[in-house]
């Protein structure tokens, strides 16, 4: 179904020079264009992050890259008919919806099946794919959204505004304002408010990738893979620079000894102080890594996540890999706050978004399905092999630190899965079996807010009979 979007408006008088330059560049651009679907600000939160950029493709008077194709026609030999209406990249909606399902599954079942819950530290589980999949999808969307721009300044301003909206929404949902099940109170002490989170990380990565796509691309006419690399070479330079910065800081900065305190059950008692011995460089363990140190120094330890995954390690839980009581010889860092969506780890999240941007650019510049899948599989294979090799040689796959090896493995897996869904849905036309996932993908952010953030259960729990414990959720065993 075609979905039309209003293109980005022109600039005002102060921005006329930038607009004129952009228009001059587009006169020499590729004739096969993807319409910008940068919608109005009226779309508000429904167009943010998990559904950051609606991915539509314009096929006015040219071969439609997403034209429905019958199952009997051979891949790569199909004659595509001209389309005068915009078509949505259905496979991206399905991929987004599948990721939402995966997120809900691991959130609700991960406590019962620790094997699919987040890895306590090094390693990779089903839950560890959710965040990079979302970032990859955002990148693909941006490759389509910002292909044709009437004004770079206006597009940049709108991207910044969207990122700010998403940051505020993330602070509201994940900063501690809602206290969760079995606690009908709400509100948060700003001095202890969690500053980073899932939506905040997506907002930062989205903004960086959007700016790269708006400003860091050439005007080359893409006829081959080499032309594609030349056109977007500065984006690859940005991705390389981010990777070098991350690895240099992770393994180069010195981590001194540090301490923290935790409150006790009774307010009259003094808080407990714990001291953690470090004095090392290049440590990637839970206690003395640079990722945690930077967050403690910049954000403040009171603004970090208070239930980190390393509480489920063997050193910190007798029920590992599940949460449990502390062992008698538990190290001092087991109860320390640590944010899995911290500042330094978000640098590699930006790179994941840029990798997804590359996959979106392949859709833009290559119209043949066979070429697209071939390029996707080459990129995905390279990322996956590189990530596994790095893990084998000591740079462990670690979601909490968002290591370079973790970025490679998960981005490669996202590329393989996206190529498979694209083949199934957009080429072979098997849409009926994915209608539910497609619908969830189109409303991903709303589903995330209502379901994954427990907003719906909290609202339902607010209606009870005489005692707060007598509510519908308690009757069906939720939150008890």
TrEMBL record:
Positions with biased composition (Acidic residues): 34-43
Record keywords: Membrane, Transmembrane, Transmembrane helix
Pfam families, sorted: HGSNAT_cat (PF07786)
Transmembrane segments annotated in the record for this chain: 94-117, 129-147, 159-178, 198-216, 236-254, 343-363, 375-395, 401-425, 445-465
Annotated region described as Disordered, given as residue ranges: 22-44, 57-82
Domain Heparan-alpha-glucosaminide N-acetyltransferase catalytic, first and last residues per copy: 88-211
UniProt protein name: Uncharacterized protein isoform 1
Source organism per UniProt: Theobroma cacao
